[in-house]
Amino acid sequence: MPAEIPIITVDGPSGTGKGTVCSYLAERLDWRLLDSGAIYRVLGHAALQEGISLADGERLAGLAGRLDLDFRQSNGGIRAILAGVDVTDAIRTEAAGAAASQVAALPEVRAALLAIQRAFCRPPGLIADGRDMGTVVFPAARLKLYLTASPEERARRRYNQLKQKGIGVNLPDLSTDIRQRDARDEGRAISPSRPAPDAIVIDTTNLDAGEVCNRVVSLVQSTFHKLPLKN
Ligand code: C5P
Hints:
Layout: E1 7-11, H1 18-29, E2 32-35, H2 36-50, H3 57-65, E3 69-74, E4 77-82, E5 85-86, H4 94-103, H5 107-118, E6 126-130, H6 133-137, E7 143-148, H7 151-164, H8 171-187, E8 200-203, H9 209-223
Parallel strand pairs: 1-6, 1-7, 2-6, 7-8
Antiparallel strand pairs: 3-4, 4-5
Helix pairs in contact: 1-9, 2-4, 3-5, 4-8, 7-8
């Protein structure tokens, strides 16, 4: 039997620090990183570009099946390349996030993206960032984390992130967007965003990024004994 490829899933809503924790872990463990949200964002972005309705499950699943998508490692992190065009910045807008959340509610789309996500699992290990990584995509993962934070704190973090990137937003609009996206992601019939029964939930509201990373590293060490960690 082939050796099990170790997987750590990190789920939870946006603004909880998942991205930071996942990049940190991928770096220290030298494992692959799956940013599943980026795949939903690329699909939403491609649908808007091609004029496909965000409610048309059949056409969106077709689009998902022929997505010419590549993730490339660069100095500034991972870049998303769609049909040869760098869409990394385009998919980070709130509009792309809202489009992602709409297409993500459709069962045909989720089914079409399942194999693409699972193909990321290769040795030596995988860090999977998303909403349903621990519940649906990698239910056998050895370590499952679910990050939460209060909606106010998450809106504040997103606001600072977007401002840093030079993307103009206002806090009240952002809070409304976040609440709408949460309601859709948590309330949808298929793969709602929720912790797996065996997930460890970490409330990051009063923790800074370093504290969350330290806590997660301790959990990694106690789950996977003798795993080499880079400094
Ligand atoms: O994580 P991120 O904010 O980039 O995800 C964008 C949207 O993609 C989420 O709001 C959610 O609707 C969807 N998503 C999902 N399942 C995942 C990852 C993201 O439904 N595993």
